[in-house]
Amino acid sequence: MPEVRAVVFDCDGVLADNGSSWQNIHDYFGTENKEMLARFLRKEVTDEEFVADDVRLWKSVQEKIHRDDIMRCYSGVKLMQGAREVVEELHSRSIMVAIVSSGVDLLVGTIAQMLKVDDWAANGFEFNEEGWMIGGMPTIVNSHDKGQMVEKFARINQLDPSTIVSVGDSGPDLSMMIEGSSFVGFNPIRAGAKDAFTKAGVPVIESRDLREIWNPIFGEDFSNQG
Ligand SMILES: [Mg+2]
């Protein structure tokens, strides 16, 4: 593998030890959207249509939703085991760290701040000045084409794709692997993720300790670092 200059992480299920930052909100309101999720995964609905339907469901439970309600959904979410150590070691090697997530910006931004990453992008909601939810924000990160954002990150930072490694936990995350770059599949517990990774011929880490990605990226175990 050529010199690594940047690692781009997915957030939900990779840097954050949660399933999905959207599902966290459903858990809070006691709603579910399995049918829309299935249609979304078949690319029959867009990110924006998906969010609009979620917001409709949540507002059927609670008419007015405040930003603080959404923040509360994430109060129990922890960093993935080893995430802090991995990001610190990458930074100590002057390797850039970014997050490209189609998850909710309120969580992703918190994780980004905790880990002091260099750049991040995510989706989310629009709130009015008093913090009440208006609806979904226009899509920034397209779940099925996260590569757009990885390309933008590469362009802005003048990085050759061959120096970029992306890390994701779901099939659609493979779209982060822009032409010439590498990918590591991590924690593939979502339906179809492991098959998608195997089919794509990328390394797969089935543990839930992020330090395990060190070996496929650098060819040595993390325990030998620091
Ligand atoms: Mg994920």
SSE layout:
Layout: E1 6-9, H1 21-29, H2 34-41, H3 47-61, H4 67-73, H5 83-92, E2 96-104, H6 105-115, E3 119-123, E4 125-127, E5 133-136, H7 147-156, E6 164-168, E7 182-186, H8 193-200, E8 204-205, H9 214-218
Can you describe what's shown?
The chain is α/β, with parallel strands linked by helices. The protein has a domain at 6-17 and 79-123 and 138-224: Rossmann fold (3-Layer(aba) Sandwich), CATH 3.40.50.1000. It is 37% helix and 16% strand. It contains nine helices and eight strands. Strands 3-2-1-6-7-8 form a six-stranded parallel beta sheet, sandwiched between helices. A two-stranded antiparallel ribbon has the order 4-5. The mean pLDDT is 96. The protein binds magnesium ion (MG).
Salient structural properties:
two-stranded antiparallel ribbon; globular; 8 strands; 9 helices; Rossmann fold; six-stranded parallel sheet
Distance between the termini: 21 Å
User: What share of the residues lie within helices?
Assistant: 25-40%
Q: According to CATH, what is the class of the domain at 6-17 and 79-123 and 138-224?
A: Alpha Beta
Shape: globular
